[in-house]
Amino acid sequence: MLKLNSLEELNGYSFQSFIFEVQEDKVLINNLKDQIKIEILYSQNKKMKLIEKIYKQTGLKIALNKLEDKELLAFIQDKGFEKTLWSPIGKAMHDYNMIEEGDRIAIGISGGKDSLTVLNALVRIKKISGIKFEIFPIHIHPVEEGGKYQEIKEYCNKLGVELQVIETSIGESILTNEELKNPCFICARVRRGLLYKEMKKQNINKLILGHHKDDLIETFLLNVFYQGNMGVMKPAYYSEEYGLKVIRPLAYVEEKEIIRYAKKLSLPILHNDCPYETSENSKRLKVKKLIEDLSKDSPNIRSVMLNSIKDLFV
């Protein structure tokens, strides 16, 4: 991976049999092996597209350390997601008054597709809304997994925000405790507690989580089927215990659209080593499969189900 502060630093760089020449509106690639010259045109606000083309032509991976505002928005707002991503995020933001002037907002960065997508969304909103607020990405990292978060840290820098990392040994204590009936619940609760503690230190008043429409529906069905109650995961709520507001901007976004977006932008997904995520005994995976099967006959079933429980969000 070649890391650059600006594309101009690529000028004169050699990689395998390729030598690069950067001009004002194009990059020339001399292939010394095949004795051919490749010309790639580009504009200043589409450098990420240029980087993709260079990779396809040469195999050279390039990462810009930081993007200018126009280039950053062009990258985040990749075409094809207005109706399925940006519009539902905007509607959720409006419906629940999620962001206000002067907010100090933490984002729980797990390193998965959901948290990185919601990070992009918040950076986009800050650039286009005119609302003044601060963004604090925070990653709770199990020490057992080593320093796997470096790529996410570099990605945050590229977006103009700094990733804070809190290391914990939570993974070891949970995985070795055979008496825990619901390790996922305990793990989430401990991680959230660490987040809240850090937010209080820094006077941060809101927390963004990456839960999406599928998460909200699945949680409701899990509570109905296995707990005998109608508990819901709300798009927004105020935590009296910790004195802050928790918001979920992806509440109206379907998971399949987040997957499509993450793949299109090649987001630096951090692989999750947790064995409970893919366990055959996972109740959430069973509910997820149930919804998927029902959607084959009723494609809009997720929206129908979400609308049916909206009154519970109040």
From TrEMBL:
Leader sequence segment: none
Q: Which Gene3D superfamilies match?
A: HUPs
Record bears the keyword ATP-binding: yes
- What Gene Ontology molecular function terms does this protein carry? ATP binding
Residues in a coiled coil are none
The answer to keyword Isomerase applying to this record is no
Q: Which residues form the tRNA(Ile)-lysidine/2-thiocytidine synthase N-terminal domain?
A: 105-268
| Keywords assigned by UniProt, alphabetized | ATP-binding, Nucleotide-binding
Mind telling me what this protein is named?
Answer: ATP-binding protein
Q: Which organism is it from?
A: Candidatus Cetobacterium colombiensis
